[in-house]
């Protein structure tokens, strides 16, 4: 029994190493958003867009969100929330929602806090050098959850782009790549089209090709846990460019 397992693992390892030596193709890239591209908030105020303050856009109506199992209450200016995407416009349609309140039991209050911070500052909270190591890791995981949150609700692309930038910057600041636990969690909670999947798969290829602190056994177990990970890994192998860090 043990010998058979060892032989199977050896075959997988050999195949993995062989695959990572395939011919590489250039990674397709999308045009970065313009520096002038900003979150456009719903407003009737005549103040010019380049001179706007958050108070010009918040309005006076307030809505509430109950988050998590304990139903933690968050109170938010309605106009700011609705400006992030149609999901909230529909959720707070006065014809269907007369209480001005919704419940998001499956969401993490810590993740929603990041989202609300972004709404009021127009900046996604980052991983910073002054944080403790544990706080850095917690922030990066919460940012990944925040990205999944915005994908699920199909919020504005500019919001997702800003979050994704903070995720990349965070891993770079940490000097780390996504670990197998995080990769597995991302694949369990995202769709096959998720940009976050492509990112962690590209990071995994980069890690293997450059022999950066990885355990082959852990990667083999990761592949066995979800065939989508294998598919994305093989796709990213062909797009791999030496010395191009995906972070």
TrEMBL record:
Residues 60-128 form the BTB domain. InterPro entries: BTB/POZ_dom, SKP1/BTB/POZ_sf. Pfam families: BTB. PROSITE patterns: BTB. This is BTB domain-containing protein.
